[in-house]
């Protein structure tokens, strides 16, 4: 859930339940995951993804398993984005939330998205094939169809027609359905503000 997604009464009820159950964390996690608030529309897509979630989640969503990216390189990208695995800033861990998005990290996420598409900068022997994955899911076609498929896959829904047109126009209003344009479209979607939310 995002920041401020639950009102004070909900937090107090959870705290009271924890005290009544001798701080049974398992009960608390179950209560949160079963809560209607957890799945309420206003709470979805309101939390900024941490670097590891963004880096690994992008690779998994795009089904980059054969050949997979190099995990050490992915960890290095996450470190450049501010989350150096196994080296938190203190015992409390990373601050999270809005602190994940800075000018530097936004540029880093953009660079990661394009590196992931190219393949070699993340330890893959081949570039990403945007059309092949879409076809495996029965969504092949022109560039507009590809943009709609990846917007649904990576953002969890279909953004407005104007949003999709903006991605297409960034490529070129008359961009052809080439492998390079498919990769660039997916990278632009991954680098979009909407893709930074979970």
The ordered H/E elements are: HHHHHHHHH
Q: How many strand units? A: 0
Give me the number of helical elements.
9
Give the distance, in angstroms, between the N- and C-terminal Cα atoms.
8 Å
As residue ranges, the low-confidence spans are none
Count of discrete domains: 2
| Average pLDDT rating | 89
The fraction of residues in strands falls at under 5%
- Main β-sheet description: none
> Over the alpha carbons, how many angstroms does the gyration radius reach?
19 Å
Structural class: mainly alpha
* Overall spatial form: globular
Could you explain the architecture of this structure?
This protein is mostly helical. 53% of the residues lie in helices and 0% in strands. It contains nine helices and no strands. The protein starts with 7 loop residues before the first helix and ends in a 7-residue tail after the last helix.
């Amino acid at each position: 859930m995002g920041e401020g997604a639950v009102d004070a009464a909900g937090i107090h009820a959870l705290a009271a339940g924890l005290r009544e159950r001798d701080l049974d964390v398992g009960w608390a996690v179950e209560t949160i995951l079963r809560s209607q608030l957890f799945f309420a529309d206003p709470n979805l897509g309101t939390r900024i993804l941490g670097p590891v979630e963004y880096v690994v989640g992008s690779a998994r969503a795009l089904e980059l398993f054969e050949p997979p990216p190099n995990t050490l390189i992915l960890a290095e990208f996450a470190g450049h984005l501010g989350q150096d695995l196994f080296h938190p800033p203190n015992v409390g861990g990373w601050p999270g939330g809005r602190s994940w998005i800075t000018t530097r990290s936004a540029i880093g996420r953009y660079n990661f998205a394009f590196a992931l598409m190219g393949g070699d900068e993340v330890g893959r022997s081949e570039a990403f094939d945007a059309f092949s994955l879409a076809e495996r899911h029965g969504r092949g076609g022109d560039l507009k169809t590809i943009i709609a498929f990846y917007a649904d896959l990576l953002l969890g829904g279909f953004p407005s027609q104007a949003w999709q047109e903006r991605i297409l126009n960034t490529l070129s209003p008359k961009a052809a359905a080439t492998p390079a344009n498919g990769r660039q479209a997916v990278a632009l979607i991954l680098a979009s503000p909407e893709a930074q939310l979970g």
